[in-house]
Design brief:
CATH class of the largest domain: Alpha Beta
Number of domains: 3
Keywords: Dioxygenase, Oxidoreductase
Largest sheet: 7 strands, antiparallel
Order of helices and strands: EEHEEHEEEEEEEEHEEHEHEEHEE
Helix content: 10-25%
Number of helices: 6
Shape: globular
Strand content: 25-35%
Pfam families: FAD_binding_6, Fer2, NAD_binding_1
CATH topology of the largest domain: Rossmann fold
Radius of gyration: 21 Å
GO molecular function, one term: 2 iron, 2 sulfur cluster binding
Number of strands: 19
Structural class: alpha/beta
CATH superfamily of the largest domain: Nucleotide-binding domain of ferredoxin-NADP reductase (FNR) module
Cofactor: [2Fe-2S] cluster
Organism: Bradyrhizobium erythrophlei
Amino acid sequence: MMAGRWSRRVPHTIALNFEDGTTQFIRADESESIADAAYRHGINVPLDCTNGVCGTCKAFLQSGEFDPGSYIEDALSDVEAAEGYVLCCQAKAKSDMVIDILASSGACKVKPKDTIAEIVEVEALSTHRMRLSVKPLEGTLPMFLPGQYVNVTAPDQMTSRPYSFTSAPGADVATFLIRNVPGGKMSAYLEAKAKTGDRLLLNGPFGSFYLRAPRRPILFLAGGTGVGPILSMLEHLAARGANNQPVQLVYGARDDADLVEVERIEALAARIPKFAYHTTCSGPGSRHPLTGHVTDHFAAGSLNNGDVDVYLCGPPEMVENGRQHVAKLGLSPANIHFEKFAPASEVLTA
């Protein structure tokens, strides 16, 4: 989520990210501190004073503009302020913001939001890939940062799985790219039982794998359904802009048929300036123009001498190989964000 400009009389949206991966969105106008806005929404951010003296409410700013307010050096040093830290009891929003709260959501009395949604469509993209589309039964879909996920619970209220949005925040219909796991309860439901109008429970959002403000070139590395959250990031960049920064995607799958959503990526390429992508398949006998692993198709030049944001998502082995490959190139990207996608065990909801 990028910092957007609003009228001074319209509250700004602030995403509060907690240490356990929970994200809560609040609205704050320019006359109130972030802490006051959070308390108004029932969120108890860490706080021992309200006048910039103790430093307990120190948080990290991911993006956005703000008035830092007044505080003493012991509460927030000049070095910390330069690194991006703010004091929630003093800072006031001047735009949309994304802030990391240095505490768990439970400690701040945050409860993830439940949203009732109904199925619009379940589409088989290949034998092993499905696209799930849902819309809210009432109101709007949950707010989220591009790249985040929600826990989706099926109608029996027993089977719950985490799925990343592939749609952009604010869309009327949310989409998810799902791996069809043989024997999986949710997979079996979506493949054989789900029908238009069925209700699902979405709980969240969650996750620290989300798009940061584009201040340097971006390299996306995706394996399998790990392309899902990256699609959400690309949709957001297409809608909001990449600040004229180069964007590159290398997307791989084992089997040719499972290299899905390529037409969507092609359409996004027409909407995002300086966006280029490559696809590859690693399975034996592949007839894809590029074969091999994702790491076979980017080199040191893609890392812009280390001044690059890298987003890496896919199976655990692929993610680890990607991180090791970057290290072998002798460069340390300014920022590397990753998420490992593995067939999760079915979760029983109490």
